[in-house]
Amino acid sequence: RLRQLEDNDLPLHLKGRGTGNILYRLTMVLCLGGAIYSLYCLGWTSFPHKK
């Protein structure tokens, strides 16, 4: 518990154990993947399709 109170210029998600780091990276991957997918869908619907 004292490890989280130390001021060593680390972000909060890196002060814990490895699980915080893994969850942070998983969240970033999901957010970036969702943003890229939404841009792809927006681009796909912007152009007419052949029938």
From TrEMBL:
The chain crosses the membrane at residues 22-42. It comes from the Eukaryota. SUPFAM superfamilies: Mitochondrial cytochrome c oxidase subunit VIIa. It is a single-pass membrane protein. One of its GO terms (molecular function) is oxidoreductase activity. GO terms for biological process: mitochondrial electron transport, cytochrome c to oxygen; mitochondrial respirasome assembly; regulation of oxidative phosphorylation. The keyword Transit peptide applies. One of its GO terms (cellular component) is respiratory chain complex IV. The keyword Chloroplast does not apply. Keywords: Membrane, Mitochondrion, Mitochondrion inner membrane, Oxidoreductase, Transit peptide, Transmembrane, Transmembrane helix. It is found in: Mitochondrion inner membrane. Pathway: Energy metabolism; oxidative phosphorylation. Belongs to the cytochrome c oxidase VIIa family. Component of the mitochondrial respiratory complex IV (CIV, also named cytochrome c oxidase complex), the last enzyme in the mitochondrial electron transport chain which drives oxidative phosphorylation. The CIV complex is the component of the respiratory chain that catalyzes the reduction of oxygen to water. Acts as an assembly factor that specifically drives the homodimerization of CIV complexes, mediating the formation of mitochondrial respiratory supercomplexes (respirasomes) containing two CIV: supercomplxes with two molecules of CIV show improved activity. This is Cytochrome c oxidase subunit 7A1, mitochondrial. It comes from Suricata suricatta (Meerkat).
